[in-house]
Design goal:
alpha/beta; Rossmann fold; 2 domains; five-stranded parallel beta sheet; four-stranded parallel beta sheet; 9 strands
């Protein structure tokens, strides 16, 4: 795989062939992620976790991936405890981190911050979410979940539900699914539709896109339902958030009208969009999805960082 030393700031940084190679490598990493096998290809590697926005699954799965592979982490989990609070620029912070670590994983509330970090760093930078922009590694684990469930990424019909305006996971995933020729059905509350420029990008990538406001109709013959929460933190006016809060909810009654093999996905955290009664059903794929973050990120880190410096 030709990813050694490369920045991964957008899913567009990866070709379809490279995505397929990462997913194939991730499948082989599952025993390592489960702890049933041991290998240390990242021995003596240090990865900086620069998280300037709250995160549970993304940060911890990246840390688990590094440590399962024998590497170590330097972690910023609170931007308020860094020199940014003293007025240091993000550019200078990343430039400094690149002298301490072999790679940098960054999450930041501002769109475009990962690109800025890549310019500042002379070490590889991986985007772990930049505002309402991109989240490429989430897309990779989403694709891994679909591939595991259906054995393919081509010819699938995927319903994207929720905050399609601010949801960065949807922006990355929709583009990648278009690359694989999936059919996308968009269902969003008023004011939270996928931006038109994003829809055009998907169409140019070869994707088929349609809108269906009736969720029951949308999922009737779908293979997967990808649910996102409404991004409260992206709203400038909280009253606008309250207008759309709680406007959709997935429960067993709704899913009774879907295909038996339909899977429900969610990047998590959920905030009431999926009823707990769905959890024990065969439709629920979101916890498996969360686990697959570890082998997928293990595969990507190994490809970007290459073999260990010594030993391993």
């Amino acid at each position: 795989m030709s990813l050694h030393g490369r920045d991964i700031t957008s899913i567009r940084d990866l070709s379809r062939e490279e995505i397929e190679e990462i997913l194939a490598a991730a499948r082989k990493m599952i025993p390592l992620a489960e702890g049933t096998k041991v290998a240390h290809p990242l021995l003596e590697r240090i990865v900086a976790m620069a998280f300037f926005e709250p995160s549970t699954r993304t940060r911890l799965s990246f840390e688990a991936a590094v440590q399962r592979l024998g590497g170590r982490c330097l972690t910023i989990a609170d931007a308020g405890a860094t020199s940014l609070r003293k007025g240091e620029s993000l550019y200078d912070t990343i430039r400094m981190l690149s002298s301490y670590a072999d790679a940098i994983v960054i999450r930041h509330p501002n769109e475009g911050s990962a690109r800025l970090a890549a310019r500042a760093s002379d070490r590889p930078v991986i985007n772990a979410g930049d505002g309402s922009g991109q989240h490429p590694t989430q897309t990779l684990l989403d694709l891994a979940t679909l591939q595991e469930a259906f054995g393919t990424l081509t010819g699938l019909k995927i319903v994207l539900l929720g905050d399609l305006k601010y949801g960065r996971t949807v922006h990355s995933l929709a583009y990648a699914l278009a690359e694989f020729g999936s059919e996308l059905v968009l269902t969003a509350p008023p004011g939270l539709k996928l931006p038109e420029e994003r829809s055009e990008e998907i169409r140019r990538a070869g994707g088929r896109v349609s809108e269906e406001p009736d969720l029951r109709k949308a999922i009737r013959d779908a293979d997967a339902l990808y649910v996102t929460r409404i991004q409260k933190e992206r709203f400038v006016d909280e009253s606008e958030f309250r207008k759309v809060a709680g406007s959709y909810r997935i429960d067993v009654d709704l899913l009774a009208g879907a295909k038996p093999r339909l899977i429900v996905m969610h990047p998590l955290p959920r905030a009431g969009e999926i009823a707990p009664e769905v959890d024990p059903t065969p439709h629920a794929a979101y916890f498996r999805q969360a686990f697959l973050a570890v082998p997928v990120r293990m595969a990507l880190l190994t490809a970007v960082l290459g073999p260990a410096k010594r030993g391993g």
